[in-house]
Automatic annotation (TrEMBL):
This is DoxX family protein. Keywords: Membrane, Transmembrane, Transmembrane helix. The keyword Transmembrane helix applies. It comes from Streptomyces griseicoloratus. The chain crosses the membrane at residues 67-98.
Length: 141
């Protein structure tokens, strides 16, 4: 049985999958104050999230991160599927970076000191897009 993953995709899938899975696991059982703070930042960038309770938002975010991290780590999940998930998730994170005041310098994408932690999400987006483009290109042959 041939797995639906090319050897060249293993390192970035392991790195991004482990990172995202760990992030989701760290959010499990987050205290109310931290959940409120995280939810506040997210709803400032995406107002539709204001209808969720902070603990519900964090629980859903945690579950989503753990599911995406597992999908990236499991070689039975096709790279195209994992890449689409990573691209969608990281697009939301990049949007958060771009929409949150003080994360980047004015009229620039360069991160401020506060924004450096969020700026790494561009790497996740690039990795996800790379998976999708590579799989689309290879699948067309």
């Amino acid at each position: 049985m041939r797995l639906p993953i090319a050897p060249r995709h293993v390192p970035p899938r392991l790195a991004t999958g482990a990172f995202i899975l760990n992030s989701g696991m760290a959010k499990r059982g987050m205290d109310e104050q931290s959940a409120t703070q995280l939810h506040g930042m997210a709803k400032a960038a995406y107002p539709f999230l204001g209808s969720l309770q902070p603990t519900t938002f964090v629980r859903m975010l945690s579950a989503g991160e753990m599911a995406l991290g597992a999908a990236l780590l499991l070689p039975v999940v096709p790279t195209m599927v994992a890449g689409i998930g990573l691209t969608a998730f990281s697009s939301g994170l990049v949007g958060l970076y771009l929409r949150t005041p003080g994360m980047h310098e004015e009229r620039s994408l360069r991160p401020t000191q506060d924004g450096t932690a969020l700026a790494k999400d561009f790497w996740l987006l690039g990795t996800g897009l790379g998976f999708v483009v590579d799989e689309a290109r290879c699948g067309a042959r």
